[in-house]
Amino acid sequence: ELKTPLTSIIGFSDLIDKLEKVEDIRNCNGYIRKESVKLLQMVEELLQSSLKGEEAWRVQLQRTDLTAVLADSLRILEPTLQKSSITTVLQAEPCEAYLDPARTQQVIFNVIDNAIKHSKCTHLTLMLDTAAAHAGTCLLRIADNGQGMSEADAAQLFLPEEDKPLRPVTVNSHGLGLLLSKQLMELQGGDIAVSSRLGEGTVVELTFRTDRPPAPVLLQN
């Protein structure tokens, strides 16, 4: 979680040296400041949690344009995606849902970071399906064209580490943040699911509520 804003800060810092237009430089500086503030907030949360002797996270739900959150997330990840030679397509119409923008962005970062590091993909498609909005939900699909994984590996993605079979860490292993991502989605009244097949890529589906979900609870440990 801490590495994503740091990577973005480094990426935009490197990009500034190649820019000539003042407006472009100002935009980069804006993202650097935004990610620096986010990093400071995350460090503060960790410090507060350590003082309390527990890990405690809350979500603050508000009606938010999910498409804007997606576009902002891709902009922040742009230097990392370019460095990895990964192209992206965002297919989305304006869609408002009840979510915590910061926590939702954490989940999106984690999903895309896993694709960058582990899938060996060259392309990502982000598609926001609002067809189910009348039923109180909207669906975000993040699909990569990478190597995929077996059904057995996919079934273990959301297990706590102590419940996973012991095996050496390889380049094909997926990030430890998926369990936290699932918990954060559930706190927002949503969910996360993964489908994948070897050689055919991976699809991650994030479900958000377009109607107000029940009051969020505290996530501990």
Automatic annotation (TrEMBL):
<keyword id="KW-0597">Phosphoprotein</keyword>
<dbReference type="InterPro" id="IPR036097">
    <property type="entry name" value="HisK_dim/P_sf"/>
</dbReference>
<dbReference type="GO" id="GO:0000155">
    <property type="term" value="F:phosphorelay sensor kinase activity"/>
</dbReference>
<dbReference type="InterPro" id="IPR036890">
    <property type="entry name" value="HATPase_C_sf"/>
</dbReference>
<feature type="domain" description="Histidine kinase">
    <location>
        <begin position="1"/>
        <end position="212"/>
    </location>
</feature>
<protein>
    <recommendedName>
        <fullName>histidine kinase</fullName>
        <ecNumber>2.7.13.3</ecNumber>
    </recommendedName>
</protein>
<keyword id="KW-0902">Two-component regulatory system</keyword>
<dbReference type="InterPro" id="IPR003594">
    <property type="entry name" value="HATPase_dom"/>
</dbReference>
<keyword id="KW-0547">Nucleotide-binding</keyword>
<dbReference type="GO" id="GO:0005524">
    <property type="term" value="F:ATP binding"/>
</dbReference>
<dbReference type="InterPro" id="IPR003661">
    <property type="entry name" value="HisK_dim/P_dom"/>
</dbReference>
<keyword id="KW-0067">ATP-binding</keyword>
<keyword id="KW-0808">Transferase</keyword>
<dbReference type="InterPro" id="IPR005467">
    <property type="entry name" value="His_kinase_dom"/>
</dbReference>
<dbReference type="Pfam" id="PF02518">
    <property type="entry name" value="HATPase_c"/>
</dbReference>
<keyword id="KW-0418">Kinase</keyword>
<dbReference type="InterPro" id="IPR004358">
    <property type="entry name" value="Sig_transdc_His_kin-like_C"/>
</dbReference>
<dbReference type="Pfam" id="PF00512">
    <property type="entry name" value="HisKA"/>
</dbReference>
<dbReference type="InterPro" id="IPR050736">
    <property type="entry name" value="Sensor_HK_Regulatory"/>
</dbReference>
